[in-house]
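Cross-check.
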Amino acid sequence: MTNHENVQCSTCTCGLCCTKIQNFGVTRNKFEILKNVDLHIHCGDLTAIIGPNGAGKSTLLKAILGEIPHTGELIFLDAKSKRTGRPLLGYVPQKLDFDNSSPMSVFDLFAAARTGIPVWLSRSKHLHQSVKESLGKVQADHLIDRRLGALSGGELQRVLLALALEPVPDLLLLDEPVSGVDQNGLQMFYKTVSDLRTNYDLSILLVSHDLNLVAQYADRVVFINNKTVESCGTPKQVFTDKRVIDTFGIDWTNQLKNEKGGIE
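Predicted model, tokenized:
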């Protein structure tokens, strides 16, 4: 990989759609957090963002969402001729803050997001079936009547993932969505996200510290450090980059089985 500070991640050319992040920068309270960030995210690709704590990974997602001011441009190109301009975004946060003792169910959460009618006034069979089908996209339809506070961390994140897919977005942003989830839940979540990428031709941008699962499931990896993109490419290319090895203190050179095979 090049040692140039401004690395572009643009080698994938699916020919269908592309979200271009060009020269993104974020400065808050006169402190520069990100600069010269260039990414090309293609449909059907799972792109993972890795980096040390405080590198600006979550800040980048918030800038893409439009939650914080930024410089640079975000351009969506759609060769399918459905939409060109700004992509339709879906978002799954690190966690959902709510009262665990609340009686709200998974169905209630979806109903509140979809209708302006108080949930207790209407519970149509059509809406119930529609929500169940949405949850089925992430193998979570059996959770529809479960109380939110009774869900495990992995179950809650799958529910939030299903909610982010209504409607199916052009670009799905996942900000460390399985923080605190056990190993079985981690594996299931990554497998589900990987399947969604294929089934719905989604562009997915995932911030993660789960490097083994990133190596196993990601199509491309972006390493953010020192306020910008320092390395970008396939998992094998990025995880054998000296800057990545030095940052995480692990040498994957002889451990990567292949570009999609994970780390032994």
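The chain has one domain: 8-248. Helices lie at 57-65, 106-114, 125-136, 153-164, 183-199, 211-217, 235-239, 242-248. Passed to J.P. for a second look.
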